[in-house]
Structure formats: C-alpha cells, structure tokens
Amino acid sequence: MVRSLLGGKGFSARVASMGVTPGAEVTVIQNYRQGPMLIEVRDTRVALGRGEALKIEVERAAAEARE
Amino acid sequence: MSERTSGVPGERGAPITVALAGQPNVGKSTVFNVLTGLSQHVGNWPGKTVEQKSGVCIGEGKEVRVVDLPGTYSLTANSEEERIARDFIIHERPDVVVVVVNAAALERNLYLLAELLALPRPVVVGLNMLDVAEQQGMRVEPHVLEAALGVPVVPMVASRNQGVRELMQRALGLACDPASFAPQRPTMRAEHQEVLAAIQALLVGRIPKPYPEDWVALKLLEGDREVTQRVQAEAGDVWQEIEALLKQHEDAIVDIARGRYEWIGRMVRAALSRSRPGAITLTDRLDRVAIHPFWGLVLLLGIFGLVFWLTYAAAMPVVNWLGTKVVSSMAEGARQVLAPAPEWLASLLVDGLIAGAGAVLALVPVLVIFFAVLGLLEDVGYLARSAYVMDRFMHWVGLHGRSFMPLFVGFGCNVPGVMGARIVEDRRARLLTILLMPLVPCTGRMAVIAFLAPAFFGASAAVVTWGLVAGNVVLLFLIGMAINRGVFRGARSAFIMEMPLYHLPNARTIGLYVWHNVWAFAKKAGTIILLASATVWLLSYLPGGEVEGSLLARFGRWLEPAGRWLGLGDWRLIIALLSSFVAKENTIAALGVLYGSEANLGLAEQVARTLTPAAALAFLVVQMTFVPCAATVAAIRQETGAWKWPAFSVGLLLVVSFGAAIIVYQLARVMGWGA
C-alpha cells in the first residue's frame, strides 16, 4: 500500500493521476537489481525508473513484497 | 465561438463540435478512426508541437466536427498536452465532450472524468474495451454506472465497431439538450472544502471570463502552474491572501487526487464486480520474456533484425521494379516528348526532376513496410516494452526508455523520428533525442550501403553493413554522453510510463498509422527533394552544359585536398556525398550522373574500381554519419522552434562524420587495406 509520495508537486501530480495515491494498493510485478521496475496499481501496469520508485513510500500489506 | 452557448447547436447550419477526450491506451484513436475515417485532418495545435487531429462525421443527419484531444491522464497543466486539452474545452466550448474510458482499468480512467466534470461542459462516457475487461475477470454494468454518475454511459468494443454509433447518438442527444445534463460531481474532502470556499470568495469578479471560479480555486489548490501564474497576474491585491491560504495547504494535490479516487470508488462500487482474482493473464505470460532484463533484450534484438529483414526482403523487389520500369520509362517517355524542346529543358526534367522524384518514390515501399511493422508492434503493445527494456541503456546518455521509441522510428526515416520525439515529456530530454536522431541510420542511408557494399566488399558486405550500423549506434551513445555532460550538465528526467495490456492488432489503426507517416514523408520530402534536385542539376549544368566543367565540379575539385584525408581524392565522390544532404539515397543518383554509364559494368562496380578498400570503407562511414538531410533539418527546426539547433546538428555531424572517416581510413591503411 502506498503511504506517501516524496517527490515534488509535478511528480506527485503525475503519478497520482496514474493511480498512485496514498492508500492505493500496489503490486510489484518486476524488480531486478538494475533498470526500471514494473508495478500494478488500480488495474494498470506502470513502469517507474529507479529514481522515481524511490520517491514512493510504501508499506507492506499482508504477503506483498516491499519496494 | 463563445456565442455557441446559447441556442440549440446543429441548427442554423452551425456544425456540432464533439471533443474526444481520454487517457492514453484506451482505444480513443480507434474510436476516432471509426468515426472519421479518411476525412481526418492531421496538423499541429496552433503554435504547439502537439498533433491535432480533427475530422467530420455524419450523425443523425447532421454534420459533426470531431476533435481528438491529446491523450492525458489528468487536466492539470503539467504537460503541453494537458494544457491543450483543457484549453480547448474551456475556450472553444465544444457542444459535448466524449470521454473514452478503458473498462479494464476503470477507476484510473474515471480520474479524467472526475476532472472533466469540474468544467462546465456536458460529458458522455464511452465505456470501451469491455471485452478486455472480461478477459481480465472484470464485469462492468453500464446502467449501474450511469445511474451512479448521472452521466450517459455507452458500452463499447470499438475495435469490433460495437457501440460507436450509439456513443455518437447519445453525444448528439446531449449536445442538443445540454440542460438535461445533471451529473454527480466529485465532492471534496471536508478539510479542503473550507479553504476552497475561502479562495473562491476572494476570486469573485477577478478572474478572466471563460474560467469558472470554483475550478480556478481547485486548480490553485492543486498547485497548477499555469492557473497560478494567471491568477497572480490578474488577482491584484488579493493575491497575497490567496498565497497565504495556499501555503498552508501545500501538499493538497495528493489529498485532492486521493479524494477523487475515493469518490470514484463509491461510484463504481455497485457497477464493478471481479471474478477469478489473481488469474494469470496472457500479458503476464508474455511479459515474463518481453521485459526480462536479459531475454527481453534478446527478444528486442531479434525483433529488430526481423523488422529490417522484412523491410528489405519485401520492399526491395518493389523498389527495383519502380527503378527499372517506372522511373526509367518515365524518363524515356519524357525524353521523346521533349525531343523538339531545347536540350537544357529535357536535361532539367529528366536528370533533375524525374531523378529526384524517383529517389523519393523509391523509398516509399520501404517506408510502407517499415511503418506497417512498427505500427503492428505499437498496436499490440510491444513498443512500450521495448522502451522498458532499453531504459537502462538510455540512462547512459541521460535519457530514459521513452526516447527509445522515436529513435526506433528513426531507423525508418529520421523525419517522423524527430517529430515522434514529442512523446518525451521533458524538454531537455526531447531536444537530446532529436539531436541524436541523425546518427540513427535511416532506410535512405541503408539503401546506399546496400547498393555499394556488395561491389566494394563482395562476400564480406553483410559483415561490413552490420559493422557500420553498430558503429553508428556506438557513436550515438558516445555523442549522447558528451552532449549530456557538456551541454545539459547531466540532468535527468523521470521515467513514468504505462505498460498497456497486450491486445490483438487492429488493421484500420495500423493502416492509418502507415498512411499518416508515409504521407508526411512524401509531402515534406517531395517538395524539399524536388527543389534541391533542381538546384543540384543547375549547378552541374552551368555554365557549359556538361558535368566536367560545371560549377559543381569546380567546387568538388576545390574540396579534393580535404577529401584526400579520408582517401576520397576523386571530386565525384565528394559531390555524391554532398548531394546526400538533399536526400540520403540521392548519393546513388548523383554517382549515376557523375560516372556516366559504361556498357558492360554496373555503376557500383565502376565506383569500386576507383577505390582502395580503405577509401571505400571511409566513404561508407562518412555516408552513414553525414549531416542530416534537408527534410530532417526542416523537421528539427520545426520541432525545436529555433534555427540554432539544426545548425548545431549540421556542424556537429560534419565534424563527427569526417573525424570518424579519417580515423577509419588511416587505421585501415595501417592494416594494409590501402592498396
């Protein structure tokens, strides 16, 4: 689950409009050591660069992996 | 335009305007294509480098103008697309806004609806991709959704042409009776209602006409840059009070977005049901390979190879047929018709214009096939995956995955590649993508290589060709790193991109994609190349009427000493290279004119006889990396809005191409290929 967005206004507005808002459930679909990661949020798959992913603070829900 | 609010639209002959809105990847362009077909007009939004598409369709016996708004996730002016979409709705006041939503990602899609409902225009929802939603185990009840929202909801599967007509009917019905529109509007969370009311009260009577006050207050709270600037300029003395209020609620944007999603959650609760949660879908299975850091790269390289193999294998026979049959018989016919006319006129028409037009024509089959394959890859959803896989590597030059897509297009033709760089949101990253484009070897250059390499290198031609392509890619990365460090100081932009679900391709969408890209090339290249061909002909004809003593030859001879550095001591090769500025594939035509024809020897063999292997290699290297062609220069000017960038590009590539060719020539001589 998303706890908070740490980026600036522009960043927050962009990811929020794609469904990443506090309280939204996020599933990490792919996350290797390098390169972008792929998450699923509100039935949408969103690719995030590593720098961008770091600005999204999440908390672990039940059996989900932590970012 | 503003008069249209009163009275019933569609009467008095004024056409109804329907604005088509929607987030990316919702099948909006399919809906637009079904509605308007080939009546589409594709241009730019005034003063912007964002594509504007509009078209006409007949609905209920009336002429309806359909304007396709840019695909946007929201209407906060953080990108040019979002600003255009909302400015159109506010200023042009379309009679009705149709928002196409993807039923398979309903909640996120209704976010745009939540924003649209804050604007005073009637809205109809096209609930598209119901088939995809079903595959994903989701069921949406359109009637329940309609009842909850108070907005007409039309179920659709646009890819199978289902529901599009009904959508138009409902839209026209609403356009003719806007008073019947009574939606549920999103409500704010309690903590924001107060501050909104306070700002709104301060704004009364102080904001320019078409902007609704409650909407302006909301956008201020969201920190919308454009609205903030405008109000700051117009609100006068109350701005300080407003600013103080906004300071206390600085992070409101996230809360407002959250509030919208809570509202959406309530709206869809009854309408959306899910079965088989967690089922493994086709997209999951395909993505296990397609976006894997290693296998994804292998797949991308495979697809890349296949695209080129298919392009040349399928197009080359057509190109040859055009060259040997159509163009030469046109030239022959023109010569006969013009027999009584003066010599120079026949020469201008045949050697100048028909040869130039032939060069344009020859590329069309190649581009048709290239764009058909690329359109297919885009339509099924693969292109987004290629961006994902390439993201890691694009970071080396300070770009991210998104820039890979226009660069890929550039392999077909640099012109649509430069224009395609629009999908890169960040201005700096877009500029860098454009500046790197001329290093992407386009089909024009590849045609020259394919023509000359076999004669130059015989059995090793394929190895040399792949080596040249690889060399260009390496140069692209090196120069990208240099520009990024030197000019842009290593700044980075954010990579956030939706990965659409895979779906079956739609022939109509791909067909229109090919049509628009090839037509854009033909129009731009057609005019510029014809003009330039005529100029080159003139220079090769004046003053004496033959090539040997012409102005062009004198210029070439003047450059011969410089050419020797890279083994090109023959002025004809230098002129052939320079003529590639007109269009890359023009090199072949220029060689044809300059070398004339010897009966029993092909043109490529003739050229090969005059060159050592080292010089031949250097010639191919400089050809591959030479300055962008005239059409690309024009495209760079158009997209960057200033002449300094195409000038920079030409200067840079002049240095790079000669530098690379000199190094290659000298190295090859050391290796003993100089004789």
Write the layout of secondary structure elements.
The complex is a heterodimer of chains A (67) and B (675).
Chain A: E1 2-5, H1 9-17, E2 26-30, E3 37-41, E4 44-48, H2 50-54, E5 56-58
Antiparallel strand pairs in A: 1-5, 2-3, 3-4
Chain B: E1 16-22, H1 28-36, E2 41-44, E3 51-59, E4 62-68, H2 80-92, E5 96-102, H3 106-116, E6 123-128, H4 130-135, E7 138-140, H5 142-149, E8 153-155, H6 164-176, H7 190-203, H8 213-221, H9 225-234, H10 239-248, H11 252-268, E9 272-274, H12 282-290, H13 295-337, H14 343-380, H15 382-394, H16 404-410, H17 414-420, H18 427-436, H19 443-457, H20 461-486, E10 496-499, H21 507-541, H22 551-564, H23 571-578, H24 586-595, H25 603-609, H26 613-625, H27 630-640, H28 644-670
Parallel strand pairs in B: 1-4, 1-5, 5-6, 6-8
Antiparallel strand pairs in B: 2-3, 3-4, 7-9
Q: Strand count, sense and closure of the main sheet of chain B?
A: 7 strands, mixed
Strand tally of chain B is: 10
Which structural class matches the secondary elements of chain A?
Answer: alpha+beta
Low-confidence stretches of chain B: 1-12
**Strand portion of chain B, in percent?**
5-15%
Q: Indicate the low-confidence ranges of chain A by residue numbers.
A: none
The strand line-up of the biggest sheet of chain A is 2-3-4
The average pLDDT of chain B is: 84
Number of domains of chain B: 3
